[in-house]
Amino acid sequence: MSAIVARASRRAARALESRARPSRALDGWARDGWARAATATATATATATGPTTRVERGRASATSASDDAAVGLKARVAAALERANARLRAIKRAHGDRVVGEVTVNMVAGGMRGITAMLYETSLLDAEEGIRFRGRAIPELREKLPKARGGEEPLPEGIMWLMLTGEIPSEAQVRTLSAELAARAEVPKVVFDALDALPKNAHPMTQLSVALMAMQPESKFAKAYQDGAHKTTFWEHAFEDSMDIIARLPAVCAAIYRRTFKDGTLVAADESLDWAANFAHMMGHDSEAVKELMRLYMTIHVDHEGGNVSAHATHLVGSALSDPYLSLVAGLNGLAGPLHGLANQEVLKWLNETREKVGDNATKEELTEFVWATLKSGRVVPGYGHGVLRKTDPRYTCQREFALKHLPDDPMFKLVGKLFEVVPGVLTETGKVKNPWPNVDAHSGVLLQYYGITEANFYTVLFGASRAIGVLSQLTLSRGSGYPIERPKSVTSQWIEEKFGKVEA
Ligand code: NMX
Ligand code: MLT
Asked: Considering 203, 301, 312, 386, which one is annotated as catalytic?
């Protein structure tokens, strides 16, 4: 057993122990039988699967089932990869030469919209129905994924397991994963030093990017590559880095929050909490309601198939065998754009602007006029429209359901509801907007501000922490399936004219 595995195993064992110990405030997180269930699952999964396949044999030689709390998930990923790779080989044999779609000049010149051009297994977006994670829609996942004790929202650890393996995890499996993440959560000091070197007014997304880059020298993937690792083991190193990154994100993001918007003091992790609840706790928000919101938020933002800017950028950079730190930062820098993830920040600002201008009892006519004024000033209406979706985003709908249950009388929530009645009509009237309906960002800020997370500039960091789970899961699978370096062809406008005929300008 390597020193790294031994160290991780000792930390995992300590984390499991601390969960087995009765704690002050468990906030719904199961106390009894915790360690027993986690250990039993890790052992049972490893035994049931057995190191029978090529990928698994590689895994089994690197770790030992009895002392690595992550083995449950890693073994399932190995088995899932073995199945997926066999299927992909068969698909290529049977359908490799089939035509998927046509590419027009408008598509080439129009942001590649509508071009089907990549494999991405963790989720798939349907223009009418919205996102499905491994074939399962959000309402089904809210019902079936494990929850915190006493909680009603799914734990993000569950969707991570699902994306990596294609399987709905048991409660015990999710808790094993949660324990493993807690065991890896220690953030190296260099991250805080790097953050301290930045001005406090650096945008939180810039801070997140810098913090992750400060951790990059620890990349196990980069080290393994330099040490000459065989390509069939790349996924394991990507998995290890991904686990480390996801484990540390709550502490890193909370530190950014507290140094930017609070007094800079850090709140210690509470190891009795699940990943999302601990995130809220370290930010300094401790109500059970805010923890439930974080669980839901972190689950629904996790992935949106492969073509969105953050997923695609991560995927593209990863295809050059850049390690998961480098790849994720590429994706997060894309998420920081106002047409992508930063839209959640822009929505809250725009809602506040709307409220200041028209008040809480605005008529539909007054709101319509305000929306037109936004458009006429050359800006977009943030939170509306989409590159693929052609209906209301189910992530908007599930946040609305949460609001109806927990904050039905909040004036900002009511404003969001009223805008839903006027914005689609206005956008349709422009004659050019292909999807006039709200997307995920139209709602998220209103829920966060209700629970005291009013700092809009931080919202994209929350989106990014969740998105990391999805894009790093796919990155691990991509390395496990040996996807090649991504390199589409580009052309010049002169090439188009030479091919189809010269035109008068
Ligand atoms: N407000 C004003 N104009 C819009 C909007 C909107 N919400 N949505 C689309 N348009 C315009 C768009 O700018 C384009 O105008 P032009 O031809 O003058 O350049 C025209 O309508 C056609 O665009 P579409 O094909 O409908 O949309 P596209 O696929 O190019 O862009 C978005 C998709 C999401 C970038 C776009 O709808 C938008 O800018 N929305 C507002 C920002 C936003 O909410 N982004 C978050 C997306 C979700 N996420 O989290 O990433
Ligand atoms: C996302 O969650 O990534 C956004 O909805 C943008 C997209 O899918 O293009």
From this structure: 386
Q: Work out the average pLDDT over 255-272.
A: 97
Q: Which of 241, 323, 393, 441 is catalytic?
A: 441
Among 35-39, 125-129, 264-268, the least confident range:
35-39
Task: Using DSSP, state whether 27 is helix, strand or coil.
Answer: coil
Which two structure tokens, joined as six digits, stand for 434? 């292909």
Q: Which residue has the tokens 């998420």?
A: 335
Q: Angle at which helices 343-358 and 364-376 pack, to 10 degrees?
A: 130
| β-sheet bridge partners, residue 117 | none
Q: Alpha helices of 217-308 — where are they, by DSSP H? A: 220-226, 234-261, 275-283, 288-300
Report the pLDDT averaged over residues 447-461.
98
Q: How confident is the model at residue 71, as a pLDDT?
A: 61
**Alpha helices (H) in 21-53, listed in sequence order:** 34-49
Q: What is the pLDDT of residue 70?
A: 52
417 token code pair: 């509801």
Given a contact cutoff of 8 angstroms between Cβ atoms, the answer to whether 246 and 233 are in contact is no
List, edge to edge, every strand of the sheet that includes 136-137: 123-126, 130-133, 136-137
386: annotated active-site residue: yes
- Checking if the pLDDT of 315 tops 80, the result is yes
pTM for the whole structure = 0.89
**Residue 201, CB-side half-sphere exposure with 13 Å CA sphere:** 0
Residues 6+ apart with CB under 8 A from 497: 503
Q: List pLDDT tens digits, range 331-385.
A: 999 999 999 999 999 999 999 999 999 999 999 999 999 999 999 999 999 999 9
Amino acid at 495: W
In 3-state terms, what secondary structure has residue 252?
Answer: helix
> What angle, rounded to 10 degrees, do the helices at 364-376 and 411-429 form?
60
Mutational test site, ligand 2, from 299, 308, 434, max ligand atoms within 8 Å of CB:
308
Based on the residue annotation, tell me whether 237 is a catalytic residue of this protein: no
Rounded-to-integer distance, Cα 440 and Cα 69, Å: 34
Gap between the Cα atoms of 225 and 486, Å rounded: 19
Would you state the torsion angle of the CA atoms of residues 330, 335, 337, 343, taken in this order, to the nearest 10 degrees?
180
Residue 107: pLDDT over 90: yes
Which residue, 15, 37, 67, is CA-closest to 149?
37
Does the CB atom of residue 183 touch ligand 1 within 6 A?
no
Distance 139 CA to ligand 1 centre (A): 26
Are residues 37 and 125 in contact, defined by beta-carbon separation less than 8 angstroms?
no
